Amino acid sequence: MIVSKKDLPNFLDKLISEYQVFAPVRKDTFTVFKQICSGKDAVLAAGNTKLPVKELFFPQSEKLYSYSVTEAGAKLEATLDDQQKIVFGVRPCDAKSLVLLDHVFNNDKYQDPYYLTRRENTILVGIGCNSPASTCFCTSVNGGPFDTNGLDILLVDTGDAYVVEVVSDKGKALAEKAGFAAASDADQAAAAKAKEDAVVTCQVNLDGLKAKLDVNFYDPIWDKIHEKCLGCGACTYLCPTCHCFDIVDDAVDCNGCRVRNWDSCAFPLFTLHGSGHNPRTSNKERYRNRIMHKFKYFVDNNNEIACVGCGRCIKNCPVNMDIRVVLEDVRGSEARLDS
Amino acid sequence: MQKLAAQIKDAAKKLLEDKKVDLVVGFAEGSLPLRGTPLFARTPEEAEKLTWSRGCENNLANYLRKREGKVAVVAKGCDARSIVALVKENQINRDNLYIIGVPCTGMIDRKKVEKLLEGREVLAIEDIGDAVVLKGKDFSETVALADLMHNSCLDCRYGNPVLYDELVGELLPEKGEDDFAEIKAFEAKTTAERRAYLAQEFSKCIRCYACRNACPVCYCTECFVDCTTPEWIGKSAADVQDNILFQAVRVFHSAGRCADCGACERACPMGINLRLLTRKLVKDVKELFNAEAGVNLDDKAALASFTADDPEPFLVKE
Ligand code: SF4
Ligand code: SF4
Ligand code: SF4
Ligand code: SF4
Ligand code: SF4
What we know:
heterodimer; A: alpha/beta; seven-stranded mixed beta sheet; B: alpha/beta; five-stranded mixed beta sheet
């Protein structure tokens, strides 16, 4: 199937009457996912959004419930966001990040109703990356610029049109409803060519990394690696797979809300116990945790690396702490199996 | 620039070889086009990596507080001012610090590059003196340096380090007074306009605290935003008022101590105009106290001193 770029705004406008439609929109020098009221506002050509797509499913600040306590007792009120949504223009790395987050918010021990309700009611329409950025390394972490993992539909930009690839049943239903025209052989060939031409130039060698992380918790390399890191939240907040949160009460007297906020292992408050003890006392332990969690603990628990190679942390770190360099330093460090 | 880089390297290697210092904090070449990245060199071999370019934008004074042992630092103008401010606050022991001063003509603002290229990715930046060449996949554009420099560099009057033990390069001619034109223009707006602008700007804030953490004079063991008992400020980034409150308190806490280095604004991943607030305070401190942070070791910090003939009578009780 195919939809011409000219017809796309109309197509989106039709969807808007039925669904909440989210798409990348321009904000200053970057783009962010926002609910759009007009198909014209969607910006698909600008590469990855500043903030990852996770914020639509796991918002930075989310009211879990509100409460009030009176003499008559306590009252709780929780609302689940079950709006029918379409997220349009998701890049394959971001789509994959949701598959990874599913492990966290939907597993044997715990199913998060807030996240899951949104996931269940959302259709993801992705867009392949014809020109991956120099900081993209999706192909090194089991992804790719036209990977369909996590998507319902993938669009392939062929110049004047998008070739529509249906991935899931949800996607199929949407495509049928939209009544896209059939793609000709020439269109299919153009899509295949676009895929072929999209080269991810950056490769990160992860061979042996996990084996090293399995044993190097006490390695002196961690004393050096973190040194320039400021311990801010830029890399974790902008990372599509980071998912730590903190729960606080926003309350005045007996009325308030329980709110879930993003947290970051880079912060000193992260894992600070009520007793005042903190198992991660300095930036060294915190930075080590970031690497360990993504490339060891998550792998141990879910058999997947918790990094999709989107490059956001690389582009946004204020001191150019580049995760590719860090991984190479760790990998290249002498194995200290005794440590 | 290359000459400066070589001189810095030589100076650092000598200090380490002669065991005059245990550590040199400087810049290495980073992983992105024209990007310097902080380097901690403890051996002459590690010092080989030191460099200098228009991408050495971080304020290294931030890494010098409460250091053990003898440390050398590569300091451009704003780093040196922050160092002076921190020496006065007993955060840095001057006797244990060796300053390799580098006169600075300005650093390049990556966000300005991004804005100019409108989505095209820059793959290399070549410094050709008073202009730079931005190169990408299908383009090459020459842009005047002044158009890409950090605003803080355009406003800076202290490119020459105010304090150093050794200088590499040549001292630069002095610049005229700062006119704070953009702050005056903002002050001239109505309250409603100012409020609207700030609300718009701080709706972008994600409360990552990169601004706070990049600032050399923001070093409280517990920041008021992190404190939970009592909770001085809401923790959620969805509340623009709280985002503004965070900044308002931050800039008041650094009033009279802020050297207008711009490190906070450079660090902000969301491109928020933080210097509008920090510079308002820089301007006020200059007007009200005739003081500038970190310009010499002798002046008392503006808000940490008082005189008996202070025009505000509340300080001195008869
Ligand atoms: S790696 Fe960079 S972005 Fe991440 S916490 Fe450290 S300084 Fe901040
Ligand atoms: S760690 Fe960095 S590159 Fe990997 S997914 Fe997170 S932001 Fe993207
Ligand atoms: S890397 Fe840190 S912030 Fe990200 S998910 Fe892991 S522990 Fe949480
Ligand atoms: S507030 Fe900003 S400009 Fe002022 S000293 Fe701190 S980082 Fe520099
Ligand atoms: S660096 Fe920017 S986004 Fe982060 S807390 Fe500061 S103002 Fe907000």
